[in-house]
Structures are given as structure tokens and as C-alpha cells.
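The data are quoted verbatim here:
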Amino acid sequence: MRSVRAAADGNISTAAAGDEAETIGSIGIRLAHENLTVRIGLLRHFPVAEPFPSGWKTAGELQAWLERYDAAETTVGDFELGNVSWRACLASDMSRARCTATAVFRGEIAYTPLLREAQFSPFQTGSLRLPLVAWTWLLWLSWLTGHPSQRACRDEFRTRIAAVSDRLCAMDRDTLVVSHAGVMSSLSVELRRRGFVGPKIRFAKYAKAYIFERTAAGLTLEA
């Protein structure tokens, strides 16, 4: 079965009623009209053995916690793949995503730095202490307004999300994507914008696949 881009030369006659195909001349080749549904599963890595910070922290202390979080061991546990037999797997090359991907997928895994979590420049705020939620809002506002302290990190992240989305839109098989909460939130917006149907992800649960689908019409040759 091969894809075709143009009709073959010769007379084309309509096939029997109810059969969505056309016969090319008398050579016994049929153009079959097919709808191809591709599913993309976005899955967050397993949790790691580094708790989220509590209390009031300086920007320096928050940066130190991020470094510990990236280096922490991954805690493998239960996972939900949405009852889909995934045929391909794409994963972040960060250690927690690598560990998760090898635990949930049996087959070849393509690792890429494009799926890494967003990076942030430390705020130059000295001894100022804020709770984690306040730092999160401050960072979000900095990205939203394009503040010079975070603009390069924001633009680099957006470029990676667009590149991954291009790659996923070109996939012709069900693909599991193992990455991080921030990446999944941005990918869910981009995939929906590109015609996929799926949930809008605010803050992804660990090791749970969020499934996106898109159906495209195509032609195939049948001998």
C-alpha cells in the first residue's frame, strides 16, 4: 500500500455503491479513500525525591532548589496510558523523563532537548524573600510582559515548543510524549491550535497520559 499524490492516467470509473474507492482503468488498482486518525499522548514524568519548597525563599535559594530538583532520583510508580497501544515514544532527555519513558514504553525511544522544562534567569533581588506562589506569579508576569530578565528564556522555550509541535504534526502513528508540566501546558495549547482535539492542561498529573487526536483524509493505492 503506497501513498499517491495524483490520479493515474487512464479511465477512472466509479466503484460499486457504498465502496469508498475508485478503479483506475483495467489494471486492477484502486484508490482507497481513508481517514487517518493520529493520537498524541502527553505524559508527565514520575515524581522525584525532592519536595517542593515551603516557606519564604530568596531567589538564590529557589535557584538552588531547582538544581536539586533536576538532580533528584525519580520515584517510579503507577502510570496511566489511556488504553492506547502507543507505537512511538518521544521524550525529554532530562533524567526524570528518561527514567519514566523507559518504565512505561517498550520499544525505541527518541530523546530530545527540545522537550526540556523551561529555564529561568535568577532574579537579582538579593535578600528579598517570597513564598513559592509569589515567585511563580512574578515569573509568569515577567514572561507575559517580556521583561528583559526573562525574555531570552521565554523566547527560547517558545521556539522549542513550536519545533516539537511541527514534529508531532508530521507523525503518522500514535506517539507518546514524555516531558514536564510546563512543556505539557504549552504543547496542549499549540496542538489544539493546530487542529488536535484534546484537553487544555493547566497542571498535569504525574504519569498520566493526556490524549490529543487529529483526523486527516488521505489516498492510498490498493493492488
In short: Residues 1-33 have pLDDT under 50 and may be disordered. Helices lie at 59-71, 95-104, 132-145, 151-169, 181-193.
